[in-house]
Amino acid sequence: MVEDEPNNLELALRIVRHAGHEATVATDGYAALELAREHRPQLILLDLQLPKLDGWTVVRRLRKEPWAKDVPIVAISASASPGDESKAIEAGCTEFLSKPYYPATLRDVLNRYLVAA
């Protein structure tokens, strides 16, 4: 999970953990790349507006790595720019979620890509 805003991070972590999953957390783009390479997650929830390295660059870099080619990457953004969703998909994201989202929406994403522990 990559999120730099503490309240958004806490909410998402509660949803992920309540659904029976574990999460590794990064709060900037460089940390996201490092942790993803180290842990090789089954799913990446990625805020697009990050400090140090934006989410679009993170997903492009990850998609160049063989292990991450098919890992679902769900972009999460509060941006209301009309082209953000298509830009995220073009960069390599599997799905796009707009903030704020309902907890059930994130649970649906988790259920699509993960099996609860």
Mean pLDDT: 93
Give the strand content. Answer: 5-15%
Question: What coarse outline follows from CA principal-axis ratios?
Answer: globular
Under the CATH scheme, the architecture is: 3-Layer(aba) Sandwich
**Strand numbers in spatial order across the main sheet:** 1-2-3
| Cα gyration radius (Å) | 13 Å
Architecture overview:
This protein has 117 residues and is of the alpha/beta class. The chain has a single domain, classed as Response regulator (Rossmann fold, 3-Layer(aba) Sandwich). Helix content is 44%, strand content 11%. It contains five helices and three strands; from the N terminus they run H-H-E-H-E-H-E-H. It has helices at 6-18, 29-39, 55-63, 84-91, 103-113, and strands at 44-47, 73-77, 95-98. Strands 1-2-3 form a three-stranded parallel beta sheet, with helices on both faces. Strand 1, helix 3 and strand 2 (73-77) form a beta-alpha-beta unit. Helix 1 (6-18) packs across helix 5 (103-113) and helix 2 (29-39) packs parallel to helix 3 (55-63). The longest helix is centred in the N-terminal third of the chain and has 13 residues, at 6-18. The chain is globular, with a radius of gyration of 13 Å.
